[in-house]
Amino acid sequence: xxxxxxxxxxxxxxxxxIFVEWLLDNFMGFFEVLxxxxxxxxxxxxxxxxxxxxxxxxxxVFFLGWRYKNLKSGIxxxxxxxxxxxxxxxxxxxxxxxxxxxxxxxxxLLGLPIGIWMSYSAKVEVVVKPILDAMQxxxxxxxxxxxxxxxxxxxxxxxFATIVYALPPVIRLTNLGIKSVSREMVEAAYAFGSxxxxxxxxxxxxxxxxxxxxxxxxxxxxxxxxxxxxSMIGVKGLGYEVLAGIGRIEIAQAFDAGLSIVILxxxxxxxxxxxxxxYKIPEx
Length: 284
Prior knowledge:
Largest sheet: none
Structural class: mainly alpha
Distance between the termini: 62 Å
Low-confidence stretches: none
Shape: globular
Helix content: over 70%
Order of helices and strands: HHHHHHHHHHHHH
Radius of gyration: 22 Å
CATH class: Mainly Alpha
Number of strands: 0
Number of domains: 1
Mean pLDDT: 84
Number of helices: 13
CATH topology: MetI-like fold
Strand content: under 5%
């Protein structure tokens, strides 16, 4: 009685495997096109970041910190980013940043419309919410398996897995932000002759912008947290340095790369939160 009955057995994973194999057999052309699109975007961002002089990026971080936080924050962010160069990890950081930016951009391209759609349709929300729950609670390592099956090894499967992992926050918070807009304000917009599209663009999205920006912040943080995991499928960058340091038990290598990831995360988090706070509507 202490053990679960063996004759009651059902393994769902085998059906997921069959489904993935069916996708590969029937939609391989689609995944090849998707592979080329993601790789094109990624290489453009990567080449731009590597072309950009280091001091320009440091000045940009200083300006954003000053603009959306304060002068001390701008100086701190610029100094912290410069430390990554001092560690000799600037090029690897740009590769990591390229993956994060590409993943976040594609996540927003998918997530914002889905979040808006959910806010307008209760049926869509009922269907999408359990999927988002599963995406957020599934161990991140699991995403690497279908990513490798669809795209092989390298940067493209890393971007694909990162998108799947980082997508839920922006969808949820876009939905929440639009739903939080007061009904009176929406009805007033309709009363003045605004169409549904005009109400969305000129009323709901501006009012929901702070919440949406928080979603973008969370998506960016989750994308950055996938850096080390993505290194397991051959992605060069800070995550690979951490993984290599762990494998060789080289504390210095792993620490410098890990600290660089922390610095990058702090800078991105503070700046995006500062932008979100800037657009917050003051309470009456």
